[in-house]
């Protein structure tokens, strides 16, 4: 029986430590991992809890991230709770197995500390790794600060392991700005947290010898499509389970999570749509602009990146007087619009409101996103709104040194 | 049925049937013989992982399976990691008391071909052996990427023709020697490492039992004659395996705790390597006059290896 950990009602934890505490409180059976900056402290933390008797689990330090996720799949198929952590290049190396984990319907929790992808090599935070995995068939939750990293990691187990879902879950937080920034966190006591997460319920486990199981069979054109469709349906349908788990969490803690978070949106004319820690920066900017210049600015932040909340984005846009949106993508788009811009645009196209939407590529490799820059972007949206059309290129780079970079003008007759 | 003795092949081959005869392996493929030998060598429950390859694509095509046991396949390179995870979960759940039948004896086994073990999964294999998980890794060594149509691997011997190391007017086939994976695994300090062959089935069964009963990560390389890519008649699989072991192209031996080497089979009449090479289409170009030197080289290498193994055995170091 694991020892109880002494926890204060208010702690000062960084995102990594908060996440590792959530893994301990969930009493994860197996963590198979390979260290990588900036996520390393999460698995180091779990390792120290094992070494000191605070969790009854196995810590398997493997020789690469590919092996880490592979061992996680083998462990999950053996009927217990499994988690790991990674970032950036490690995430990229895992990618083959991310698809296998979701296709094999193993509810592994992967805590991702978002970091840029090389080349050039860079250890700082952006969302290149998150975007790389977006089609991998995992549920993707996004934490904007340390408290949320803790809360959402606990929720991730409940969501992924739910018998109607049985899918792996990524819990994202920004490298350094969230993972390494000590903040006030209100944790749950061990027994309360564990009771919320609940006992693991094995499904088709390899260690029940009363029934032979085959995991990872082959299918060709006769069955592959049906399996992938079923997997996609489970992912789309997980929305109701996510909503229910968030509701339970609110009842327990008073802290409310929604698949799409909105701030100051009721009367907002312009908004920034963002992921990660930038959400808080944009919110500060919106508050100041409202006071300073009377610009009705708000913020929209998908809490769940997959399954993408098209339904809620649509409702949010139609239930506010929004005229212009700036969608912020913290990943090099590689010859296209940013991924978040594409998702938001797809959702907005089906609205009555149809606001003007532009795309900002920003923050690559940890480039700071300041309140001032967020204000400038809000004001630019206000200019679009007043003109009734987009007055800049549709895609622009924010925070880039040198001459302005932008692509695609709106065609106006 | 408890396995108390291994005497009669017919009896041995029918005990404890957990690998179904219905599968898609080529007629004459040695893979299924080796797998059945492994599964019949123990009465314990088995958790088996398998790399992508001939064995995997032929035994688990949805909605069918040949595996009447716990079985998992993830990818080409990671069966050693998958079994590491399964073994770790077993330990964790045993500690916690969440296993359905905590007293049920269980053995963990991983299968890979030479492609997934010598080459693409080499790092994953090395990592799992180094970590010392309690499992046995078995290579079904057919010396080529048979599942994808016969390309070279680092296990393909010098002089063999493969689709990516072709014999032709300017080439005698593969120019590099076979990788000595047994030595590499022994150098990891694995408690039990062996090279076995299905024609020497009693030695193989005992080797498997020893590996399964040894705590820690054990490794076995088994020759698996490939009727399709070695190009011999499907009825001759065991004959070709006999030629492999009796020419010492494939010596049978074990290494305990990384150092104690024991030769497990000494042919009464050692045959020339050309008798082995001549039985297979993949070596037929070596019998042209301009390629004789390759046969001479192979014989020289085989003689030297046999000398080395005998001296290592005598030295008891």
Q: Could you explain how this protein is built, in words?
A:
The complex is a heterodimer of chains A (413) and B (317). Chain A is an alpha/beta fold. Chain A folds into 2 domains: 11-253, Rossmann fold; 260-407, Rossmann fold (3-Layer(aba) Sandwich), CATH 3.40.50.920. Chain A is built from 12 helices and 17 strands. Chain A has a 7-stranded mixed sheet, with helices on both faces. Chain A has a 7-stranded mixed sheet with strand order 10-12-11-14-15-16-17, with helices on both faces. Chain A has a two-stranded antiparallel sheet with strand order 1-8. In chain A, helix 1 crosses helix 2 (40-51). Chain A starts with 10 loop residues before the first strand and ends in a 6-residue tail after the last strand. Chain B has a single domain, classed as Thiamin diphosphate (ThDP)-binding fold, Pyr/PP domains (Rossmann fold). In chain B, 38% of the residues lie in helices and 15% in strands. Chain B has 12 helices and 10 strands. Chain B has helices at 9-14, 31-40, 54-59, 79-96, 114-119, 122-131, 181-187, 201-213, 227-231, 237-246, 273-277, 292-315; strands at 45-50, 70-72, 106-113, 135-141, 167-168, 171-172, 192-196, 217-223, 253-256, 260-263. An 8-stranded mixed sheet of chain B has the order 2-1-3-4-8-7-9-10, with helices on both faces. Chain B has a two-stranded antiparallel sheet with strand order 5-6. In chain B, helix 2 (31-40) packs across helix 8 and helix 4 (79-96) packs parallel to helix 6 (122-131). The model of chain B has no long low-confidence stretch (mean pLDDT 95). Classes of the chains: A alpha/beta (413), B alpha/beta (317). The interface between A and B is large, with 47 and 48 residues. Strand 9 of chain A pairs parallel with strand 2 of chain B.
